[in-house]
Amino acid sequence: MKIGVIMGGISSEREVSLNTGREIANNLDKNKYEVVPIIIDKKEDIIEKTRDIDFAFIALHGKFGEDGIAQAVLETLDIPYSGCSPLASGICMDKSITKSILKTVGVNTADWFTLNSADKLDLARVDAIGYPVVVKPNSGGSSVATAIVNGEKDIEEAVAEALKFDSEVMIEKYIKGEEITCCMMDGILLPVIAIKPKSHFFDYSSKYLDGGADEVIIELESPIREKVEEAARKCWKHLKCSVYARVDIIIGEDDIYVLEINTLPGLTKNSLFPKSAKAYGLDFLEFLDRIVQLSLKSRN
Ligand SMILES: Nc1ncnc2c1ncn2[C@@H]1O[C@H](COP(=O)(O)OP(=O)(O)O)[C@@H](O)[C@H]1O
Ligand SMILES: [Mg+2]
Q1: pTM of whole model > 0.90?
Q2: % helix / strand / coil in the chain, to the nearest 5?
Q3: Which of 24, 194, 209, 285 shows the greatest Cβ crowding within 10 Å of its Cβ?
Q4: Which element (helix H / strand E) includes 256?
């Protein structure tokens, strides 16, 4: 079987994607698969460069990769691919739509609203949420253009910065607490990882610099454990995830809050998912193999 590892792309997360892609290409089982790296520099490459592959291992992040569009092209070309469907990918790429669905199924998420470049920022709405708030691109990733804003004087600038990366910006209540991530594979929750960034929050550099954050496998205690398990399971089910996805959660003082679901979580050397899979008992090669097998099963 010839596997094309699809990486690069046209989003602000291109560099991260190239790292994820190289890591996947290096670690896929060469005794089982012929592996070819495929670098996407423009959208048409997903058609032009995938002609003779049997399976696409998608290592793209952000727009045209994580949002379901590349997946839909591969569906059209009849090439099986890794991970979530176009529908789940599209929903989860939009943080606000995701949160709306979560609310309707009883999964707790922080108060928020969104605005686009044509809207005037309504400061009264921010006051109603209460500072500090987090400002982020609604369809962003890797914490790009994400800021914690403590008061009115900094909010306009944070919104303008986020608008450079997306036409829609989210303003969300800042939740103080312990950040965790839940790696889900085939609907099963793998060991939970606690994230302790060295900076104020899990920003770009704490995500990708060596030693930028402490990330440790933890055993949650009852009743938080059951709450987290239920929330992660509901996210998986109601956002229609398949194969693998990662749910970001903050354990606040009063409740747990789901931040977002990542349908193409990073798989670089320092990434969270391989760490969790390892604690579950799968080394990176075995984990990648499992992803290929689960994907083939779910595409049939
Ligand atoms: N409402 C919030 N309260 C506290 N921290 C937040 C909040 N929203 C985001 N963060 C911090 O910013 C990081 C990135 O936000 P997230 O919503 O996961 O977007 P992405 O990872 O797609 O960039 C989180 O991992 C967390 O550290
Ligand atoms: Mg996140």
Answers
A1: yes
A2: 35, 25, 40
A3: 24
A4: strand 256-262
